[in-house]
Amino acid sequence: MRADRLVSLVLLLRQRGRLTADALARELEVSTRTVLRDIEALSAAGVPVYAERGRHGGFALLPGFRTELTGLNHDETLALLAAGSGRGEQVFGLGPALASAMRKVVDALPESHQAAASDAAQRFLVDPETDLLSRRSAVDQVPGTTMIEVRRAVLSGRKLRIHYAATDREPQWRTVDPIGLVTVRDRGYLLATRSGEDRTYRLSRVLAAEELSEPAERPNRVDLDRIWRDRSARFLSGGDHVTALVRVDPARREELLGTVLAVRAEDPDTDGWPRLEVTFQDARHAEWALWRLGADAEALAPRSLRSALRERAATLAARYAAADTP
To answer: Is 284 helix (H, G, I), strand (E, B) or coil?
Structure first.
């Protein structure tokens, strides 16, 4: 752990020049005292780091100190930097590790390529926090200590004990055999088995976790993509899911798709509005999703969904038809 921090410290000084102990502490998420000890360790190891006194002082490296790796070409570097601007790392608690990795990638480039790569990466923005209407995308929040335990168990192949809050149920402790982690639309999931049965857990509902010493019962090799497709298919075919036929204004299509579980079919309607066959979690979910689209969507089927929306609209119309009250 300390070795990684020392490397990150050197790379920060290489890429940003002179930095104060306080600035380094903020970047590395450690105390100022730890930074000073690390500086001493680097100096003792022969790294040419020196202190500059005064109001604008700080720590810096002697010019020319670097190691270069020429195995990455421009497009490969750009792909890594662009991918690093996404938010999947937030779901799995890997933000600090990704930032450290990106520093290493940039520093490993020949000096002549560094400026071009950094400038090109600034021209790409992957999955920003808000859309053009300033609507913030919800990212699952998982406590860092919990995510570390989950991640360790997945990678080490040991059983995992989780305190899980299922929907409309009291949180319970359960022991599972972790298989892998999946992120979809900023939501994280733990794929696991419990007593031999497939289980999928939403990471944001894991209140606490503990890696156990007992080996997990799982295959040595795994195809997460296939497992996810299989579980998704089983999920869509069971429970109280509602499949609806919907017309929607093209301008609101993406908003509708952001709320459904699956799109089973899509065809253009005569007026240019797409007609979609979509699946919702249940009737309540379907009513909520279509009501929020207002006049920009119409449920064509099932009849029960049309009736529920008509009754809600009639109630609202009656309320606003009454005379204004002070």
So the answer is: helix
